[in-house]
Amino acid sequence: MKKWMAVMMAAVMAVSAAGCGGTSAETDTTAASGTEAADTAADASAAGDDGADNSDGAENSDAAGNGGAEDGADAGSDKVYQIATDITFKPFEFENDNGEMVGIDLDLLKAIAEDQGFTYELQVVGFNAAVMAMETGAADAVIAGMSITPERQELYDFSDPYFESGVGCAVLSTSDATDYSDFAGKQVAAKTATEGCRFAESIADEYGFTVVQFDTSAMMYQDVLAGNSVACFEDYPVMGYEISQGMDLKLLDKLEASNNYGIAVMKGENGELLDMINAGLANLKASGEYDAIIGTYIQD
Prior knowledge:
- It comes from Candidatus Lachnoclostridium stercoripullorum.
- InterPro entries: Iontro_rcpt_C, Solute-binding_3/MltF_N.
- This is Transporter substrate-binding domain-containing protein.
- Residues 80-300 form the Solute-binding protein family 3/N-terminal domain.
- This protein is α/β, with parallel strands linked by helices.
- The chain has two domains: 4-164 and 261-297, 3-Layer(aba) Sandwich (D-Maltodextrin-Binding Protein, domain 2); 166-259, Periplasmic binding protein-like II (D-Maltodextrin-Binding Protein, domain 2, 3-Layer(aba) Sandwich), CATH 3.40.190.
- It has helices at residues 4-12, 35-42, 55-75, 104-116, 127-135, 150-153, 195-207, 217-225, 236-244, 271-287, 289-297; strands spanning 80-85, 94-95, 101-102, 119-124, 141-142, 156-158, 163-172, 187-191, 210-214, 231-235, 249-261, 264-266.
- The chain has a five-stranded mixed β-sheet with strand order 9-8-10-7-11, sandwiched between helices. A three-stranded parallel β-sheet has the order 4-1-5.
- Helix 1 (4-12) runs parallel beside helix 9 (236-244) and helix 4 (104-116) packs across helix 10 (271-287).
- It is globular and about 55 Å long.
């Protein structure tokens, strides 16, 4: 996997099908519609998350996960797994111009399911609702650009990392700001319960700014574009993709809090699903399909 600086530069140059976020639940081609489950999850109010790739972890799963995954596939062959995701977190999940939910997360999930022979229904409910759905048993797993952190590992079991990310800071393209100190006495925006939000809050007192939180990335970006906030903090591949698609922001030359994304299940639960995910991810990396999926959305 590319180092985090290479990922950021590649994200800014991303070339992909752009789209707007949708709220309807969409099901993988191997399963029936997950609308009812998505409605259940959407009704829940929640605490959230966000996430990156580590080749060492994938290589370990290749050695240890294949045999277990075959057993897991046999055991779970009749089960339809409920997997929850965010509504819009480009380029990881978003609705394209054809009304299809696509992105790195969703393409990887589909390929892993096909490789391991399991069936799932996708709940497109938003990040916080996805996490709550998993915590309440309405979903078996969450794939939503979710960072693997020590705090989350106390509550959830994660797959091997599948993407390396980190927090970036964006300002208006016309802004003269070059450092966090330029935000003193002003307001910055962040998405609730994300690594970007946690990082912004961790330096707010040091640099003298306040943090306002939003439920979606789109609302966060709009607050900066409208001039209410002077900057926003978000995973830099996500912001880089949006900027490459024409959003009138620019990234500061500051990359923070490098982290890995993983697929989450509740701690001690759905071990057979996690085994299949790890084995499938390792197989995709070995075959080159993983690189092809990443390259669809982030190009060198």
